[in-house]
Amino acid sequence: MSDGDGEGWPGAPTGERWAWLQAGDGGPELVRLDPMDVSLSYDAASRRVTRHADGRSEVVGDDVFAALGEELAAGRPEDRWYGYLGYAARPDLPARPDGRLPDAVWMRPSHLRRQPAPAPAPGEISAPEHAATPDWYAVAFSEVQEQLHAGNSYEVNLTYRAAVRSGRDPLDAFLRLSALNPAPYAAYVHHDVPGARAFVASSSPERYARVEAAGGVRTLEAKPIKGTTPRGATAEADAAASELLATDPRFRSENLMIVDLLRHDLSQVCEVGTVEVPTLMAVESYASVHQLVSTVRGALRDDVGTVAALRALFPAGSMTGAPKLRTMQIIEDVEETPRGVYAGALGWIGADGRADLGVVIRSLMTAGDGEYLLGTGGGITVQSQADDEYAESRWKAERLLRALRD
């Protein structure tokens, strides 16, 4: 495992724990931890939160949200923690532990500097060749449809995990991915600690949650994405793809169901009457896809801390479906592999009450053993077709795979 020098990135930090985030409030943030600095890791299988500092590790609790909140409360007002919450980070919800990487990692650095990371030229990306829908996906899709028609869920985000071996350094994979798939929530986490190794390269377009404070009011905002089409090869085809996304009833119904779920989630922690949807189903365009994005926002209650607010929304409704609890139970039954870091949230949380995190999609994860994990999938409704949904999952994953190829 590289110590993080990063080919072609002069000045990248050395050492075992560091992070690079695009979603900083003053530009990209590059942070590194000294040996005395603190990090937390969480193993959902054993329900253990471990605190790492000064070369020592000790178990400090069984709930990573609670442990992180305690660290924030005990720290300095200027402290900021960087890291991720994997899909199984909430012990009160049905989700299989990862088993490969920690189900959460958070780091408190003592050094901060802003520095954009250069990236290799991406080259051209072609759409993946057509492939028949495999039997295992068809079976899972059919089981989801049974649940939908029975009225147990209105929408299920059906995903799967793939494993790819590559000799590429994780930082280099992140730089390549950032070039191939530029996105506002690009982030890299490097936690090279024995027993809790995690290297996460993410280029996510989706905001999980942002907490801001102004004029004595703390605002909680989420921007769920539901509805995706690939970019067209020509200007005319691209415009047609965008128009299809904006007007197709299937995409619009998917998005509206998740907006309703997010309105419910925010209402649990926001002042009555403050939850609003300032933007409903806007088309946002990225290097490889058009996406249908809504904004849900509310004013946090005074008695709700930032970590508690993030917990109330977790995991992102766009990555579960609606209703959340029953749909997560369906996901647990039909998906063959754990989601791990994928479908969680990655970003930063400040002791001053602010926070900014993206949803972990378009991401590569590795424990440093040469095997990379990636998740892909999409929302399924009664109108969905198995072949179309499987094809969508493949082109969503194509740029991730390209980042690992020579």
UniProtKB/TrEMBL annotation:
Residues 137-396 form the Chorismate-utilising enzyme C-terminal domain. Signal peptide: none annotated. Pfam families: Chorismate_bind. SUPFAM superfamilies: ADC synthase (SSF56322). It comes from the Bacteria. This is Chorismate-utilising enzyme C-terminal domain-containing protein. It comes from Microbacterium marinilacus.
